[in-house]
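Example 3.2
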Amino acid sequence: MSTLICGSLAFDTITTFDGRFAEHILPDKVHILNISFLVPTMRREFGGCAGNIAYSLALLGGDPLILAALGEDGQSYLDRLDALRIPRTHVSQLLGSYTAQAHIITDRDNNQITSFHPGAMGRAHELPVPLDAGVTLAIIAPDGRAAMIDHAAQLAAAGIPFVFDPGQGMPMFDGADLRDFIAKASWVAVNDYEAELLVERTGWSLDHIATQVQGLVVTRGELGCRIWSDGAAPVDIPGVPARTVCDPTGCGDAFRAGLLYGLSHGWTLADCTRLGNVLGSEKIAVHGPQNHHLTLDSALRRVAEVYGTAPQAA
């Protein structure tokens, strides 16, 4: 019983600005913006939403199956997946393209500015959903526009429940697109900024969106998340204090791995998000989106420590 993760695989170049963006970007001068940030530290990491989610889900003992496209320069990513024992059966290298590349600058307040080259990700629609792979749950994470639309339609037609996670892909879709995704999805997961965009573009309130799906999750950083589930009133799930704060890159993806693990085991949405909050707090304590380490047992102990109780491991 695999969890299909439809999304990007990317190389992340992560840099740190030892200041605050807000002190250097003048609101009344944005029409002539020309600015440069000195970034004394730089790291190259394996990233992309699909890779990040699969990494954390594998740590929990889940069964991630990635559907994604790499470019001609993607062999090192394939080697990494092999080393992690994450199947790459449905990861394809596409000739004539680079692997997707993200260039991220993080300031002192953990605000981020990112530029992104989609590369092979823009052709991910060429890869169909593997309907014969024993998939029982899926997520539509940020990917090429056509891929997100096509894969959602294929999952819905096959009756496979999925989480719609538009993330940084939100700007690619208008209100009609987003309403169609919501109609096909079983759950929607967004952060608080994306939630505002979702409301603005669909013309629907969050309460109304929640009536269209089994569950709606809005993450709120260190504050945790707000959830709507099975028609009940929204509930706030407090965040999990981090041991230290190093790098927010990939925290949302780590959270989604916890969400998917719980959903695949029939947990309540509240318990799923508690586990997700723990994974997010573990990820932010290390640099890079795929360098944290934990087990399901250690994660559940942390859930019990923070929330007083934890679901039983499968």
